[in-house]
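Troubleshooting log. The previous structure file for this entry was overwritten by mistake, so regenerating from the original sequence record. Sequence copied from the archived sheet and checked twice against the printout by T.R.
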Amino acid sequence: MRQPNICIGLTEVKVMTTKSMLLCPRDIITYYHDEIRNEERAKRIVQAEKARKSGKVRLAVEEVAKGEYILIERFEYYSALLKTQPDVRVPCFVYPGTSDVERLIHILKISIPLKGTSWLFKNEHVMKLIQNHGLLERDIAKKTYYKTAIIKYYILDTRIPQNIRERALQMKAKTVLEEIARSTVIPEEVKMILYSNAIIEQGNDFRLTGKKLDYMKEFCSVCFFPDTLLKNTSDLDLERLINYLISKNFEIKEHMTSLLDSFLSHDETSYRSTQEEYVEIIH
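Regenerated output below.
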């Protein structure tokens, strides 16, 4: 029988009807969770939670449909259970289902201050509100009671592969990655290569900088990439081309020198004739 409980979060107090259930971690879905690959670390997290003096540890889920549960709290503990005992039933607080937006907002309220959740975890939830529900960063900030600057910190287009997003801040590549994702002239196959080049160490010739990205946009707007180049992933010709262009800085220096040499090599008589025609026109 359901009993009314007072749920005290970080920033709000609200009364909801809950029930207690035993659920297998494998049967609980998430929007995103940080996978724990090291089993010993996962075991330590589980043991630490069980040793807490606050009583029996419980996951918190919402029942979004009959027999379908989604995690809303205790994220690191859930990841540890999923690694160590995915089919062992554990105690859970089960709350009635709310809307997708309310659930995502609640998760962000809880998770943003937590060290046990990664930047990518928060990025995934923020971007779901932006891309799936049309919320602006200021809307999310208002609903979660965090400053807009904090929400902005977790904004990065989810079209960018996860492994790239994980290193975006560390490699100071967030702005370039966003510009790649937003570009309408760069083919998707080329973007996948550029994402990797954007997170190469600074100072490396193969690092994609903002200026080199501008050159790449110009290159892609002028040059047509045949399908034989874009779709053929076996011989890496496309990757070699992109790496060549970036490492050689698109041969801009050579191109400028060539332009000057081409001008200076014009027949002097022809040049004079052109100048005289120009003088006549302006007078």
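The mean pLDDT is 89. Archived copy saved in two places this time.
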